[in-house]
Design brief:
CATH class of the largest domain: Mainly Alpha
Radius of gyration: 21 Å
Number of strands: 10
Bound molecules: coenzyme a persulfide
CATH architecture of the largest domain: Up-down Bundle
CATH topology of the largest domain: Butyryl-CoA Dehydrogenase, subunit A, domain 3
Structural class: alpha+beta
Distance between the termini: 37 Å
Shape: globular
Number of helices: 11
Number of domains: 3
Order of helices and strands: HHHHHHEEEEEEEEHEEHHHH
Strand content: 5-15%
Largest sheet: 4 strands, mixed
């Protein structure tokens, strides 16, 4: 379908597609098997200036919006969700600065992230604060000219690989969600370390670690936004980033359909390629229907967000739920079309199915997305 991309948007697609086909696809299985961080690929993505897509031009970026980043992520998702996640998490890590950072913070941190010289990460989740994000226990206390952070963040993408971390901590427990604040922690700050890499079902090339703060001291001016606004910044960050997760789902679904359809054309049973059987054709057709519907929805959501950046929670969550539930179903069906071969590690759909699962879990489970959508409907229909 023609989505009427501008010249610049088509350029983003073409560059991301080329990196995906030439660099990601040939080594994705090896990266997965070795749990290896895709540093060389990310360096190439940096050389192609794609880390700068969501960063304004005055800080060395491309000045793009949600739709531009969606286009890049769809391509990376088609190749490998692990690589796509590592890329996406760097944007996620700098969204708090874009939304709430001071001019000095933007000038200090954004150009290096835009150039891909430094990676970013976003630290929200804790052992006892997942869906209940406001239940975090990490604290930050002002001591003279420094904030002192204590606590542990869990399952942080790009942990140990990033140099810049935006981290939420409680500054006033009595104020509930209004008692959380956002901070910038840098690699090497005293009292800050990352745990070992977690072993995961999928997205194994991306790094996932704990962030550990033991009397971690950072300068006073590393707070992002006013004290007490950290939770609002978190919510704005997640609203802006969830269509990117939808885009990873669209790409992953497309990648799985490409594999399944190519296999069905060459696999002969009962003297015919199995694509000639209606049972298989209908499975492929359902995949194509749901991928295209997800793509159209995700693109529309991203374009809407760029045009109307306020009150975007509902459409952002709708795109995330629809496209990632689709990715789980399509990758599962791709394995089914390929039968025993699909279940074997030599074929990419086995990894795709494992990778798909995280899309329904991270950046807010799909159950939480339905809560967000339901709460918004509740408000709309009260009018
Ligand atoms: N934008 C701006 N502010 C928002 C917001 C949004 N999208 N969503 C909520 N808020 C504000 C609320 O207005 C409220 O402010 P007040 O206290 O001033 O009224 C505050 O944030 C708390 O909101 P709420 O009471 O709805 O939060 P809950 O404690 O019920 O938590 C959340 C529900 C939003 C945390 C939950 O639905 C959620 O999204 N969980 C998933 C978190 C997540 O994605 N984790 C994975 C992270 S991986 S990076």
């Amino acid at each position: 379908m023609d989505y009427f991309l501008s010249e610049e948007q088509q350029m983003i697609v073409d560059i991301a597609k080329q990196i995906t086909d030439e660099r990601i696809v040939p080594i994705r299985a090896e990266l997965d098997e070795k749990h290896e961080f895709p540093r060389e690929i990310l360096d190439e993505i940096a050389q192609a200036d794609l880390f700068g897509v969501p960063i304004p031009e005055e800080y060395g970026g491309f000045g793009g919006g949600c739709f531009d980043i969606v286009l890049a992520l769809e391509q990376f998702g088609r190749g490998c969700i692990g690589v796509g996640t590592a890329f996406a998490a760097s944007s996620l890590g700098i969204y708090p600065l874009l939304f709430s950072g001071t001019e000095e913070q933007k000038q200090k941190y954004l150009p290096d992230v835009a150039a891909g010289k430094k990676f970013a990460a976003f630290g929200l989740t804790e052992a006892n604060a997942g869906s209940d994000a406001s239940g975090i226990n990490t604290t930050a206390v002002l001591d003279g000219d420094e904030w002192v952070l204590n606590g542990t963040k869990q399952w942080i993408t790009n942990g140990g690989e990033a140099q810049i971390y935006t981290v939420v901590a409680i500054t006033d427990r009595s104020k509930g969600a209004r008692g959380a604040s956002m901070f910038i922690v840098e690699e090497g700050d005293p009292g800050f370390s990352c745990g070992p890499k977690e072993k995961k079902m999928g997205i194994r090339s991306s790094s996932t670690t704990e962030l550990i703060f033991k009397d971690c001291r950072i300068p006073k001016d590393r707070i992002v936004g006013r004290q007490g606004t950290g939770f609002i910044t978190v919510m704005k960050t997640l609203d802006a980033s969830r269509p990117g997760i939808a885009a990873l789902g669209v790409g992953l679904g497309q990648g799985a359909l490409d594999e399944a359809a190519a296999y069905a054309k060459q696999r002969v049973q009962f003297d015919k390629p199995i694509i000639a059987f209606q049972a298989v054709q209908h499975m492929l057709a359902d995949m194509a229907i749901n991928i295209e519907a997800s793509r159209a929805l995700t693109y529309s959501a991203a374009r809407h967000i760029d045009a109307h950046p306020k009150n975007i929670s509902k459409i952002s969550s709708i795109s995330k739920v629809f496209a990632t539930d689709m990715a789980m179903k399509v990758t599962t069906d791709a394995v089914q079309v390929m039968g025993g071969y699909g279940y074997m590690c030599e074929y990419p759909v086995e990894k795709m199915m494992r990778d798909a699962k995280i899309l329904q879990i991270y950046e807010g489970t799909n159950q939480i997305q339905r809560n967000v959508i339901g709460q918004e409907l509740n408000k709309e229909y009260a009018k």
